[in-house]
Amino acid sequence: MNSKITLYVARHGKTLMNTLDRVQGWCDSPLTDEGIDVARYLGHGLNDVVFRTAYCSDLRRTKQTVEVILEAKGQKDIPVYEFSGLREACFGGFEADFNHTMWNSAALYLHYTSVDAMYKDILAKKINYRDVLNAIQKIDKLGMAENFTQVEQRTQASLKEIAEKEIRKGDGNILVISHGMSILAMLLSLGGDKLFTKPLDNAAVCKVTYQNGEFTVESMADMSYVEKGKLMIGVEV
């Protein structure tokens, strides 16, 4: 029988820059208390899943998230590997600016009168994040922002490398902690676009299987593990 691995790809916990509503791509900041809590809830919610290995980007917020999750699960001794290819999209001159500045600029470039109108069309699949990230890249005055294809190619290459490395060890569960836009760029074209109906919140999980050289996205933006973790440790939901 051909081996099959299951990858639990999750977004990092809430950070200081998330709280300040600042653009956070290659810029980095630590998890807040709330971010640590949601990572801990996720760890408890994944209690029934035994991970063989964990991966994260080279940014502090994902490393901190994976540490909290594994501590909560009682699996802090499993190997953890960093992949720079899993890091968030670079937003160039918008880095550390207010989120509304970047998103409003992208909305205007795409001929929307508001970010809400743009986001409504994203969820309705009239436009997609490829359009939005490409718009940000085009209006970045520093010329440093990545376009969607750049983020898609490096994140999918990292996911493929991880999957090929792990499949040689046989069946298993793998934890991957990355970032919001990076996860979308990674998974939408692998089938995640059909399942993407809500925002990718902090600690949201996307479940992906890999077998016979093919990825199958089974779920997107799943917060049920966090909710389960809250119930397990008696946090009111």
From TrEMBL:
What's a GO biological-process term for it?
negative regulation of glycolytic process
Which annotated residues bind substrate? Answer: R11, H12, G13, K14, T15, L16, M17, N18, R61
Decide whether keyword Hydrolase is in the record: yes
Task: Name the domain of life this protein comes from.
Answer: Bacteria
Keywords annotated in UniProt: Hydrolase
Which InterPro entries does this one have? His_Pase_superF_clade-1 (IPR013078), His_PPase_superfam (IPR029033), Phosphoglycerate_Mutase (IPR051695)
Signal peptide location:
none
| Sites marked Transition state stabilizer | H179
- Record's CDD domains? HP_PGM_like
Q: Quick one: a GO cellular component term?
A: cytosol
Q: What is this protein called?
A: Phosphoglycerate mutase
Q: Which organism is it from?
A: Dysgonomonas mossii DSM 22836
Lineage at the top is:
Bacteria, Pseudomonadati, Bacteroidota, Bacteroidia, Bacteroidales
